[in-house]
Design a protein that fits this description.
The chain is mainly β and 120 residues long. The protein is built from one helix and five strands, in the order ββββαβ. It has one domain. Strand 3 and strand 4 form a beta hairpin. It starts with a strand and ends with a strand.
């Protein structure tokens, strides 16, 4: 699945995501966010790190180990931070909305910063 959105720097970006990518839509299932060890957390800050996924991996060619180049394009990895205090969650949320990429990584952008409240 491909997601198109605006980065924290205000630029359009498209990236691949898997079927577990969470968007806080009105009927979204929050149980996938607040489960396991985090079921008692009150707030979650979600953000997406967009990476250009390319490099080399080991393959066998004619019985000889070799490196093969791959390029999966832009891929979004969703990250979650959990909080019990709304003030702490808001501080993290406001800071994440200003994230910028670092030149020494494969990260090309940050996007989809959400503050999610556990209503259970």
């Amino acid at each position: 699945m491909v997601r198109s959105t605006i980065t924290t720097q205000g630029k359009a970006v498209s990236f691949s995501v898997d079927s577990h990518y969470y968007l806080p839509l009105p009927n979204a299932n929050k149980s996938i966010i607040f489960d396991g060890h985090f079921k008692d957390s009150k707030f979650c800050v979600a953000y997406t790190k967009v990476v250009h996924d390319c490099g080399y991996h080991d393959v066998m060619k004619w019985g000889t180990p070799s490196l093969e180049y791959y390029d999966n394009g832009n891929v979004g990895y969703q990250c979650f931070n959990y909080f019990n205090s709304k003030d702490e969650a808001l501080k993290d949320y406001n800071a994440r909305k200003k994230l910028t990429r670092k030149d020494f990584t494969k990260t090309i952008a940050y996007a989809d910063v959400f503050l999610i409240e556990n209503n259970n």
